[in-house]
What we know:
- This protein is about 30% helix and about 15% strand.
- By secondary structure, it is an alpha/beta fold.
- Helix 4 (about 110-120) links the parallel strand 6 and strand 7 (about 125).
- Helix 1 (about 1-25) runs antiparallel to helix 14 (about 455-470), helix 3 runs parallel beside helix 4 and helix 6 packs across helix 7.
- It is globular and about 55 Å long.
Amino acid sequence: MKFLASLAAVAATVATTAFADDVNAVHTLQPRQSSSKLKGTLPIVTVKGNAFYAGKERFYIRGVAYQPGGAADAADPILDTKTLARDIKLFKRLGINTIRVYTVDNSKSHDEGMKMLDDAGIYLALDVNTPKFSINREKPKLSYNEKYLQSVFATAEEFTPYKGTLLLISGNEVINAPNSTGTAPTVKAVTRDLKNFIANRGMRPVPVGYSSADVSENIEQQLKYFSCGEGEQARADFFAFNDYSWCDPSSFQKSGWDVKTKTYGGYNVPIFLSEFGCNKNTRQWEELSALYSKKMTGVYSGGLAYEFTVEDNGYGLVEKSGAGVEPNGDFRRLEKAFKQYKPPSGDGGASTKGKIPDCPPHSKTWNVKDKLIPAPPSGIQKYMTGGAGKGPGLAKSAGTSQGGGGTSSDEMIEMTGAAASGSPASVDEDGSGTSGGSQASGGAAASTYGMGSPAGLVAVVLAAMVSATFGAGMLI
């Protein structure tokens, strides 16, 4: 027993020391030295402190949401190269540098479409989920499974080689109301799994983060939660949110953006608007006058106007006209606004002094009672070592992962990947609190963690040695 205690103490000491250094370090994501397998000519965008950089130059997202047909259609717009070629001409007319795509077919190559975007100087902000392979906020535990993660990993495997892949969004508006915050640990686990997969497979470390709904009761808690924790792999590399609070005619103060900018200052991750563009009145896009001014650039890194094609929801910049599309008034006004409102020169007030926040406490508007997140399904270990393989794609025959698929996990572990201690509180499928969570047992699930840092790897290996030799129960 003394040997076990000593071994556990060594693991804890190594992990604690490394994570203490990690928490105080400047948040930086840099490309790997080897780029022989990378595709494209665009400068790779990296993270430093609370901003994006293309080389040494500050990078601001100036783009649009692009999913022709809307979510219901669930088609891959990058594969439709004929339509993409047509629309790229309009992207260039707008003067944008980024498009956000919500759904892609991860069973197919995107070389042609991504080269077209690269040649046009346009980056891709990509959601890794699809309608059938995503976290169900009503059943987060059931939908977090091996089959789901294989799809997510396949998307990452397909898109990380492209230099034009700006970032990967691990979840979009999963928390969309005060009563859905219980899904947060699962979303954080997905972020962790995706970052670990990218690190284990030696892929380019494309930034991974979350796109939030602007839920006034808990959006600051969301920012804190997805940015907090000692385990770097479980922390988001950026935080984005969909903000429709500026409705023209408005102003920096009237919209409340002045308060938000002050509230969100001091964090150590880039923040941007993953959607914006209230259409209650005629959209003049006056929010760009603030978004790309020094009033906000010290905190925000730009945003994505919603959305390119006119859909049933009434949003859109271009309307169908015969076999083509025709720019509408919203397009022309946005084109004018992008030309008029440019980001400031220099670093725009970006900071490397932001602090990693404490995780938000449990409250009436934040139903997460501890710092534990789901352990990974044991079956994903084969993807970590051998790759994800072909994704399920968008065909009807692919089925769905939301009702389960392959291995899953009922265990909760620390954000660092260490086994949970004591009898932790957790959340039920409906978000209500429970107690008496189970302890992670090492083995295949635990070995998925901590691979992003040598200290984490040492801690996990030591824990696995104890578990394998003496049994999981002896870790207590």
